[in-house]
Amino acid sequence: MAVQAQIAIVGSGPAGFYTAEALLRAGLDCSIGLYERLPAPYGLVRYGVAPDHPKLKSVTAVFDRIAADPRIRYCGGVEVGRDVTLAELEAHHHAVVLACGSPIGRQLGVTGETLDGVMSSATFVGWYNAHPDDAAVQPQLDHPTAAVIGMGNVAMDVCRLLCTDVGNLAGHDAAPAALAALAGSRVREVHLIARGAPGAAKCTVKELRELGALPGLAVRFAREAAVFEAGEPTDLVSEWRALAARPDPPYIERTLHVHFYSAPVAFEGAGRLAALRLRDSSGAATTERVIQCGLAVTCIGYRGRPPAGVPLDDRSGVVPNAGGRVRATRAGSRAGLYVVGWLKRGPTGVIGTNRADAVETAACVMEDLSGSAIEPRAGSAAIEALLRARAVRPIDFAAWQQLDRWERERGLACGAARVKVSGLPEAYAVLDAAASTPA
Ligand code: NAP
Fold it and tell me: Is the whole-model pTM more than 0.85?
């Protein structure tokens, strides 16, 4: 009888689910342990996509169908590196696929970045999306001016959240604490800062248009000429031009100030952020400008944080790999260890990009498994025994679905799509309460 392949996937975001799907679709005789450190699955779909983009979250239905396959054992609330080591996963599986994303905001590396009031998009987005790691975050919304650094789609999300009427966020799944804080926000001026030209911004036209369409939003350009002089009339440049040429709304509630060719030099303040210093990055001027502000959100990309012992390229923030095979050294790969998603290719692309990426990594796994005869391994059964011995309580998919119902019911009470469970202690309390309630 052929030996069943035992595979562990670490991380249940899009890359993790799509890898499981690719392995199952390829007809590999396998059992897959899907490990997730948080109380809930779905990774960036749940904790990264903005609350006012609910359609993008409907992809969780696809992930639920994948999770329903009996060959998958989902283990939530289990952190590799804390509850079980990577070496243990490797010892009990034929292949371990790291799909743990890029959760760390990149640093600008300028002075003052640790001041109170300066935070990365990883933290700010986690805050409004009720990420358990960011439950204690309190962005400084008591100053009329905020700065958003970077001009990708995350910067668009952050600007939109700062500039929108909080009513537009209600009814979805934003953290209640974030909704309350945004309702009392004094931010009226948001400075959006890019070091490059209008046409080089990383945001997409759709997201820029959505930001520009916010009611009551006026848009100003620090150097309007840059917009009209911008070289090729791409769709993005046309969108900037349309924004620059349009009249102000009849009643201005907030103003978005757009700065091109502007690179942060320093965050200034005594303990707390008071100002952002910018230099001209076009080469045309040497003068510096200062924006007085109480909040600065750096939206300049992310870095991976793989389990201990896994190499991470310091410059790119990804795990060195060849098509998904983790490279232990320049010369060769580390047998049986793979990577997928943002941890493999960096923080780029949309949710669907992870599908093709996962197919590539899954193909490496299958090619390596078919290359030689494999010895039987115990797989997730062995890991679950280890977890039991350590009094770690995994949240299986049925338990997650119970939490999901609880979140939705809790949302009903306050007109939201859901109110997310705050962390593992609350998740266990909800599950225990349900277990002790007579049916
Ligand atoms: P991104 O698209 O790579 O944008 C990063 C921004 O940071 C760029 O404007 C970049 O400027 C700037 N930057 C990087 N290093 C900098 C530095 N040292 N100083 C100043 N600026 C710096 O990344 P992202 O916005 O984090 O988005 C990540 C991925 O998620 C993207 O693929 C994005 O499209 C996707 N996403 C999609 C949606 C959506 O579809 N609605 C929403 C959110 C995110 P340069 O161009 O000058 O390098």
Answer: yes
Substitution site in 47, 129, 300, 342 for ligand 1 pocket (most atoms within 8 Å of beta carbon): 300
pLDDT digits (tens, 9 = 90+) for 100-115: 999 999 999 999 999 9
**pLDDT tens readout for residues 393-430:** 999 999 999 999 999 999 999 999 999 999 999 999 99
Q: Is the CB of 108 under 6 A from ligand 1?
A: yes
Residues β-bridged to residue 276 = 267, 291
Ligand 1 nearest-atom number relative to CA 206: 41
How far does residue 151's CA lie from ligand 1's centre (Å)? 6
Q: Strand order in 295-298's β-sheet?
A: 118-120, 295-298, 145-149, 189-193, 254-259, 217-221
| Residue pair 12/36 in contact by the 8 Å Cβ criterion | yes
| Helix residue ranges, H only, 218-279 | 224-229, 235-245
Q: How far apart are CA 4 and CA 2, in angstroms?
A: 6
CB 341, CB 101: distance < 8 Å: yes
The alpha carbon dihedral of 61, 78, 175, 143 has a sign of negative
Domains of the chain: 5-103+303-395 (3.40.50.720), 107-300 (3.50.50.60)
Say yes or no: CB of residue 299 within 6 Å of ligand 1: yes
Task: Please give the distance, rounded to the nearest whole angstrom, from the Cα atom of residue 300 to the centre of ligand 1.
Answer: 5
For residues 246 and 240, the answer to whether their CB atoms sit within 8 Å is no
- Scored b (16 or more CB within 10 A) or e, 385-408 reads ebbeeeebbbbbbebbebbbebbe
The reply to whether ligand 1 has any atom less than 6 angstroms from the CB of 347 is: yes
- Amino acid in position 22: A
Reading the block at residue 19, the tokens are: 């890898």
Q: Is 105 in the pocket of ligand 1 (CB under 6 A)?
A: no
DSSP strand pairing (325-327 vs 333-339): antiparallel
